């Protein structure tokens, strides 16, 4: 709400252009109706930003790329992939023997892109949910035996999925398990689950403040803070693209 008020205040103060930088787009998972009478909250947020007076939105790793189509204004969706690749090469000595894993089928495109650029294999985990934030069953597709497994996902909330996936990977023979996330929401039991899970590290970007959670969980690393993207300021002022 504060963001909407600030956008509107700028607009009615005769600002020629208002750019909203929203690193973690709110309600991004509610991008479609998955059951009768369910809201499409991401579309509502897009409408509210437009009505408030925003001319341009900059965000990071949208949960669903089609959210960009909810807007009638310019949207730049930045990607963490370059920073993810850099972190893997610089911090995992055995990265040439790694396998990139998606904790769900929806992330297959993301992990195949990273695996192709690293010239390594990929795997994915198919999950069946009983209800939101609870996973009933997981099936691993791919061979992780005697390899370093690197899970990559756009976000983790209560962390039930990635922690169960880590257990599954260790049971399947993985020697180490890492998780790399763009948005570390870490709500509810997330911290205790990560502390109990067999992760070497859970690496996140700075789209959400993590200082307090890092104190409670030494496995969380804030190592993707310096994302490999140009500074947006000069491009915004000239109405150019920042991609």
TrEMBL record:
Q: What is the lineage of its organism?
A: Eukaryota, Metazoa, Chordata, Craniata, Vertebrata
GO MF terms, alphabetically ordered: ATP binding; kinase activity; magnesium ion binding; ribose phosphate diphosphokinase activity
Task: Give the signal peptide range.
Answer: none
Report the EC code(s) recorded for this entry. Answer: 2.7.6.1
Which intervals hold domain Ribose-phosphate pyrophosphokinase N-terminal?
1-53
- Record-level GO cellular component terms: cytoplasm; ribose phosphate diphosphokinase complex
Q: What does it catalyze?
A: D-ribose 5-phosphate + ATP = 5-phospho-alpha-D-ribose 1-diphosphate + AMP + H(+)
Protein name in UniProt? ribose-phosphate diphosphokinase
> One Pfam family name from the record?
Pribosyltran_N
Q: Which positions, given as ranges, span the membrane? A: none
Tell me, what is an example of a GO biological process annotation in this record? Answer: purine nucleotide biosynthetic process
* Protein's organism: Etheostoma spectabile
EC top class named in words: transferase
Query: Keywords, A to Z?
Result: ATP-binding, Kinase, Magnesium, Metal-binding, Nucleotide biosynthesis, Nucleotide-binding, Transferase
